[in-house]
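note to self: dont lose this again. the chain is below, predicted strucutre after it. 167 aa total, dont forget to put it in the shared folder this time
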Amino acid sequence: MTQSPASDLLTIGHSNLAAVRFVALLKDAGVTAVADVRSVPFSRWCPWFSGKALAQRLAGEAIAYIALGDALGVVDEMAHHRVCLLCAEREPLDCHRCLLVGRALAARGLALGHIRPDGTIEPHAATEQRLLALAGEADLFRDGAERLAHAYRRRAQAVAARIKARA
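---
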């Protein structure tokens, strides 16, 4: 897979990917910096994705690691790197990197792409179309932006409820 020049910013969810596969996905997409947006950069199930271990592995691959947590200064880094936002969830529609951060950055005019486990890069607009389909938002009497905002709210509530139930 070659990098998508149409994307100003990429996202990826590490899920339970093998470390080698994860790095290959980043390299294939042309990523030069990973911005970790997890509030707690730790993985009990996949320790190679814990902040310190991940930073070391990425450094060995000439990829910068930027721990952001709840502060998001990604736009500044884009002048120097091809940045990829990292979180744990495989599916962008199950994660705040898409539902909150990605949505806000797309609203500012940035073109986002989501690196999928198969190596494809899904444009954020296609992700939003999937969101509308999942939400059943086909109401032709409401404005498209209104339908999309409603779909985002419903999905964010559903994801938050699942996370709360797991805790």
